[in-house]
Write a structure and sequence with these properties.
Blueprint (H helix, E strand, L loop, with lengths): L1 E6 L5 E9 L6 H44 L8
Antiparallel strand pairs: 1-2
């Protein structure tokens, strides 16, 4: 089922202009539209997830690098 809104002269959806259309979910057009939407939104999600993972990895590396630098304090040899 798909809801279509009629638009007014300003291009905004009219609440009273809504109509319902029954569509076959197994039709090639609907499957193509679904596949296109899913690939778009999942690709967008994946990009965001990869950015978050990269930020976490950078923060983790910076944190472990600071800990390693603090743990590896220079030792002076005593003569």
């Amino acid at each position: 089922m798909t809801l279509w809104n009629k638009l007014d002269e300003n291009g905004k959806a009219m609440r009273e202009g809504r109509s319902k259309v029954e569509e076959d979910i197994d039709s090639p057009e609907i499957r193509k539209a679904f596949k296109t939407d899913m690939s778009f939104w999942l690709k967008d999600w994946l990009k965001k997830q990869q950015k978050l993972d990269a930020k976490k990895a950078t923060a983790s590396a910076a944190k472990s690098g600071a800990v390693a630098a603090a743990g590896a304090a220079p030792v002076q040899a005593t003569p």
